[in-house]
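hey so u asked for the seq, here:
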Amino acid sequence: MSILVCGGAGYVGSHCLQELKRQGVDCIVLDNLSRGHREAVGDTPLLVGDLGDEVFLEEVFSSHPIEGVMHFAASSQVGESVQKPLDYYENNLGCTIKLLQAMERHGVGSIVFSSSAAVYGEPEVTPIPEESPCRPTNPYGETKLAMERLMHWCERAYGIRSVSLRYFNAAGADPEGFLGEDHNPETHLIPLVLQAALGVRDSVTIFGRDYPTPDGSCIRDYIHVQDLAQAHLLALRRLLSGGESGIFNLGSQNGMSVCQIIETAKQVTGVDFPVREGVRRAGDPAVLIASSEKARRELGWSPVCSDPETILSTAWRWHQAHPHGYGR
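ran it, structure tokens below
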């Protein structure tokens, strides 16, 4: 039996795939390679196709003994989602419907879902517990919340159990240097900062210095991608051993502002790269910090790599070796 890793050629998906393989789990990757990278999959079988293609999905589930699913395949840029809400609903929610339909037809009853802190919107309290009201401020967060709710109803109707992992800002890179973060276009702060340090781009921009935070820039909870991978493995084990569905935050429980990340990056890289100031991006909350006590308590998860220096140093090592990303 194998685990189907949807979106396994992407940033978080490939790191989780690597961890599954380290633990001896047989995997198959499904990815359309629109945002992912063939090189990130290594020697794992890669099925290139789209989750929205029902014929393709039927062939995948008919041809492989799939025991469970990890679902990372989604569009994930906040600003883009505000500009293209129809695309986000079609790709994120529509394709998840097709995936769950295939799981139901073939009796696959476990799915670990890559959700997001974007479901909360502007939080009432921080750190944010899972019981906080979900009021997304952008279509990306809305689609992630809709996907979670869909999985809830699929358990009621079909017995498909799910764990939704609401993680905050995934960051860092594989400590062994094989995998890293490579998006096109790149919108995530840490790779943008490191590209500026490498001279690949001429500067990095702070989007908004008028937020109600100590230095006026957004504050986020950065979580190392290796710690995320461990949580996904624990969630999968929970489901495959008959455990209950659940929703869990994944975060370090510590906030870092954009300005603080930039200063730490300058220390790690030894490069005083140019920094510019821009206007706020649509849909960006001021502060997002997780309470991950539930994941620690129920999954036995504890982040070990998520201090800012480890995040930035592992990412810097990969970006130095891959200044233009995978294969470029």
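DSSP finds ten helices and 14 strands in the chain. The mean pLDDT is 95.
lmk if thats what u needed
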